Amino acid sequence: MARIIEHPWDTLKQLSIPIWFLDIEKENIYVSERLQDQWKLDSTILDRHDLMRLIHKDDLAYLDHHAMTREDRHFFYLNYRVLNNGKYEWRKDIVTPFFDENGKIMGYTGMGAPDSAYIEELGRIKKAIVEIGDAFLSYNGQEFFDFLVKYLSSVLGVETVLVGELTGEAKDQVTAISLSHKGEISSGLHYALKDTPCEQVTLTHECYYPNDVGGLFPEDITINDYGVESYHGKALLNSDGEVIGILAIMDNRTQTSGPLSKALFQIFADRTANELSRMQAEKKLEMLSQYDPLTGLVTRSYLSGILEDEIQSMNEKDSNIALLLIDIDNFKMINDSWGHTKGDELLRQFSRYLRQTFAQHDAVISRISSDEFIVLLKHVRSIEELREVSDYVIHSMRRPFLIGEKEFYNTVSIGVTFTPARLRDHYNGETLLRHADAAMHKAKRSGKNRYAVYEEKMSEQMREELHLKQSLHHALDNNQFELHYQPQVCGRTSQVIGYESLIRWNHPDYGRLSPHYFISLAEESGMIIEIGEWVLKEACQQTKRWQVEDRRPDLKISVNLSAQQFKDLNLPRKVLEALKSSGLSPDSLILEITETMVLQDFDRSTDTLNSLREKGIKVHLDDFGVGFSSLSYLNRLPVDAIKIDRSFINQIGERGEEVPIVNAIISMAKSLGLQVIAEGVETSEHIAYLKQKGCYEYQGYYFSKPVPASLVHN
Fold it and tell me: Within 13 Å of residue 347, how many CA atoms lie on the same side as its CB?
């Protein structure tokens, strides 16, 4: 303890060393002549205003006697900056308290610390740098941040250290990655930035409040709850110079370790910013692996994990889970026709549609491939509930998607699988996904625009389908395809006026297959273009042979175009090449298309049809009535005839009762000046009814099934 004297400065001023004395009662600082010379002062007595001109504003608080008051009565080091020749220089002093006879502090004396003190502090900084480097190599992620806050709290002797990440959509809050408070490590604390020192850090990149920080930020609940007196915060920046987080130390005492904390802060801030940037990059990669960047939906890999967790968490009392695998019909054709930009926009709109549709369900929605989506439904009560949901999706798709200024209609095929809780041990996530896929392909094979519920036999069908896909690639080269022909008959003359060509596949394992079994596979694989070109050439050549051999130059041939063929920009050229190579006249060829094909892009469709008809080729609209029939587009569509779908002809009964849809189609065709042909004519009653209504061209089993060319008799 220092010796008590009447007034310490009477003795101290006689020393020939740079020294000062803080008089608590008078609130003045006395400086020795030696120190007066060093600081270039006009007087040896400094008041508060003099100090404000001399000492850095952030360090003035250190020279306040309240800040110097400590529980112990020993000397301590004080760091502060003094203005010298227009620049601030750091000074480190040894400060010693002086007491009166009653043990009350009279003031403090300070004098420059010896070199050993600086060497000691430099040693601490060097030791800290080494330990920081070791920690950075030894730890990463959360371990590094936990080490950091604990280490800083210890080496700087402060109560609280925070490493926080800017969060929230507006980056208006800090979330604690790691927080050390009174030796306890925690994380996850959300800290609103508004009216806090952390907010100032994000604006200025560094803030230093050596005391009374609670008074400066009275709205900061955390600062006041923790009883924080001093605050030092530094912004954590990424490589682009953007603030991504904050490193802050807080204490319940005035801070005096200026140089050490600032040196360590700079080193730690850089290292911490690097680690935080790396962690955020990993999070982004993880997000990319979990969420589809185009639609924002869950990815297949992430869904698989969710699905496994759901299966494992099921018990006998839980409701069941189900999967809906929803595939956009003909999406490849859409992409090829509209371009990927519009295709992507369709996927985004369809994703929003799914979110809205299942918003009231406990569901997870995932995009698992280009045009396939999975809806995981939890707490499903029954299979009937799934049927209702699937029906709703199918029917709600009748509304168009608006992309740009155009309306686009689409259909979907849905595969449904239902998993009762009692059978959870029999399934895993991949099994359920395969089952949903099998059911979806069943819906595709059944004509699309529908749903199918998984049955055990579908798995075998999937294996057969895979075999068909593989062998399809060799079918053309191995001459396994052949055409069958079904006659089209004039009701007035009972004469065959032409044929529709229908492809068959003579498969080496499964025998003769109708298009029902392989056309959708050919579309999926992209082989439908090659197969369609073969059909076109073969049909033209055969028809030309009949015209010559049977002297029937009036015979016509109808060829069905696939959706992908119709969207092929080279279609007109390929059709003309087939006609030229066979010698068949353009007016002998009829191309059959469907409503769905036309509606994918109505303007482009009309351009294609007009270019074909200009060459003399006829165009018939097949399966009329089963799609999105509309008089508005039919009136503008350049076709020569419409074919009434067989499903309507089958409604004609023996009693001759009226079939309004057949009547309406015939009447409409006549009003539009279009030829009308009835498909699926099988009985004399069909013919009698159609003749009565004014339809005189027929095709169906009543006359002949499709047969090979060798069995055709003109």
Answer: 27
Task: Show the tokens assigned to 701.
Answer: 């089993």
Q: How far is CA 83 from CA 36, 90, 425, in A?
A: 13, 9, 78
CB atoms within 10 A of CB 175: 15
Q: Which residues of 82-91 are buried (b: 16+ CB within 10 A; e: fewer)?
A: beeeeeeeeb
Strand partners, 291: 298
φ/ψ (deg, to 5) at 230? -130, 155
Copy the structure tokens of residue 491: 């009701």
**Could you please report the per-residue DSSP string of 141-173?**
THHHHHHHHHHHHHHHT-SEEEEEEEESTTS-E
> Quick one: fold of 6-136?
Beta-Lactamase (3.30.450)
- Phi first, then psi: give them for residue 438, nearest 5 degrees: -65, -40
Instruction: Choose the most confident range, by mean pLDDT, from 162-171, 292-301, 676-685.
Output: 676-685
Q: What is the dihedral of CA 369, 373, 379, 385, to 10 degrees?
A: -140
For tokens 């074919």, what's the residue? 643
Greater confidence (5 vs 54) lies with: 54
CB 234 within 8 A of CB 201: yes
CA distance 232 to 249: 5
Q: Cβ distance 695 to 666 under 8 Å?
A: yes
Distance CA 179, CA 300 (A): 36
Write down the CATH superfamily of domain 479-709.
EAL domain (3.20.20.450)
Strands 697-699 and 675-679: parallel
C-alpha atoms less than 13 angstroms from C-alpha of 531 in its C-beta half-sphere: 31
298-453 topology per CATH: Alpha-Beta Plaits (3.30.70)
323: helix, strand or coil: strand
Neighbours of 263 (CB within 10 A): 18
Q: Which residues pair with 451 in a beta bridge?
A: 414
Q: Which residues, listed in sequence order, are joined to residue 417 by a DSSP beta bridge?
A: 323
Type of residue found at 616:
G
Question: Among 3.40.50.300, 3.30.70.100, 3.30.450.40, 3.30.365.10, what is the CATH number of 139-287?
Answer: 3.30.450.40
Q: What value does the mean pLDDT take over residues 649-668? A: 86
- DSSP-H helix ranges across 70-141: 115-138
pLDDT tens figures, 224-271: 888 888 888 888 988 888 899 999 889 888 765 555 556 566 667 777
Please give the Cα distance from 427 to 420 (Å, whole number).
10
512 touches 532 (CB < 8 A): no
> Could you identify the residue written with the tokens 């480097």?
133
For residue 155, the one-letter residue type is V
Structure tokens at 327: 């595939």
| 479-709 and 6-136 share a CATH fold | no
Q: Is the pTM of this model over 0.70?
A: no
Strand, coil or helix: 530: helix
Residue 410, C-beta contacts closer than 8 angstroms, at least 6 positions apart: 328, 329, 330, 334, 346, 350, 397, 401
The whole-number pLDDT of residue 128 equals 66
Task: Give the start-to-end residue ranges of the domains of the chain.
Answer: 6-136, 139-287, 298-453, 479-709
Residue 72, amino acid: D
Closest of 164, 205, 156, 162 to residue 180, by C-alpha: 162
Spatial distance between the Cα atoms of 236 and 256, rounded to a whole number of angstroms: 23
Please state whether beta strands 618-624 and 589-594 pair in parallel, antiparallel, or not at all (unpaired): parallel
Rounded to the nearest angstrom, the gap between the alpha carbon of residue 410 and the centroid of all alpha carbons in its chain is 22
Give the H or E element holding residue 277: helix 258-290
Please write down the HEC assignment for all residues of 341-393. HHHHHHHHHHHHHHHHHCCCCCEEEEECCCCEEEEEEEEECCHHHHHHHHHHH
Q: How many residues does the chain have?
A: 714
